[in-house]
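pipeline stage [seq->struct] | target=MHS family MFS transporter | organism=Rothia santali | residues=464
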Amino acid sequence: MAHHDPTLKKASHRTRSQAAEQRRVVAGTVIGTSIEWYDFFLYASAAGLVFSQLFFEPMGPQAALLVSFASVGLSFLFRPLGAFLAGHFGDRIDRKAILMVTLIGMGAATTLIGVLPTYDSIGIAAPILLILLRILQGVSAGGEWGGAVLMSVEHAPVDKRGLFGSSPQVGVPLGLLMASGMLALMSVVAPGEAFLEWGWRVPFLLSVVLIGVGYFIRHGVQESPVFAEIAQRREQTRAPVARLFGGHLLLVLVAALVFAGNNAVGYMTTGGFIQNYSTNPEGAIVLERGPVLLAVTASAVVWLVFTLVAGWLSDRIGRRSAYIIGWCAQLVGVGTLFPLVNTGQVGLLFLALAVLSVGLGLTYGQQSAMYSELFPASIRFSGVSITYAIGAILGGAFAPTIATALLQATGTTLSITAYLAGMTLIGLVATLLLRDRTGIPLGPDHEEEQAVSPLYGSGRKARA
């Protein structure tokens, strides 16, 4: 008669339970971040397509476009506020609760934009209210990313952190895909003037439904095991942001430049520049809005695939090596972008965006795992959130505005190519300044090891 070992049965049950929870975490982070970035990118795409005409038109076409793109970047200045608040309360109180707050804040702002009267209806109050809602989006986005990253990476097996960590990263191309796809659909349902009158509003109003879905899914996800262990020991840091800047300021700045190199290039599409450049009636090339949005949507699929590839690859060869490959690929994409777009052919525009998206994915998928492995457990939420927010300001915040100003000043896209290539090289140099910490223990028992600076030339323990 066979005897069953109850210990083995319990271990098997725990393994299945952990695997099920890991799947819930992946689903929660992918869906939640996709909805957040759908909201965020929807504004950026609309800024290039309709906001300059509906909210800033009295300034004149060129100034209105610059201000419209500047309103996209303005929200980035408020991301650090969201990151500071989320980091402080996430390291001290609860990481899961922060994700709920950011999800609701972003959705409320997006839905309200969908019902906002235009300049013709209420005058100067219209752009002021639009900018205030964009600021709320920025605060929400600043708090979202760090929480989603730590929920996914701290739940992951050590040898799959890169792959698990790519789940919140996938939310970016998925958000772009949904935003561009909805705008493309509405440009068919409500073509021409109808799109300007009411068609653009529908994707914004849809956000209220998506928020309900995201909230339901995230509600069932357990707290990060690392934070749960810290909380059980009652070891939450009283002033995590102060500790971060007191002992890790240079690390924060260097790691922020890694993200800036990716973000500046990514905001050529997520920030709405390419959409406006290729459809502007007064520009060098004039394509139909619908096909351009479909090309952007299709390129987001490429970005998504290579984001996952980057996470998987970083588990195999290390975060640093995966990044170096990615920077080389991104440089190729930057070099081919405008020569292909300037042909005025939709097929070649898609090819340009697809090639660019390969590099964007390969310099983004491993970021969650790399950032999580840079900071000690007790200040990790603050570290990853604030570093990401600063990188976004240095990178994508005003990239569409800078690109527009360069084009207006020089009359050629070569100046934009030089700018994007420079940002890519900055990202590469910043990556080379960091030691690879792939697989470092993340739990609170290893704070001593985690506190050793990963910057080359600084092997000392960071000051607490």
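stage status: PASS
auto-comment: Residues 169 and 365 are 6 Å apart (CA to CA). The domain at 26-450 is CATH 1.20.1250.20 (Growth Hormone; Chain: A;).
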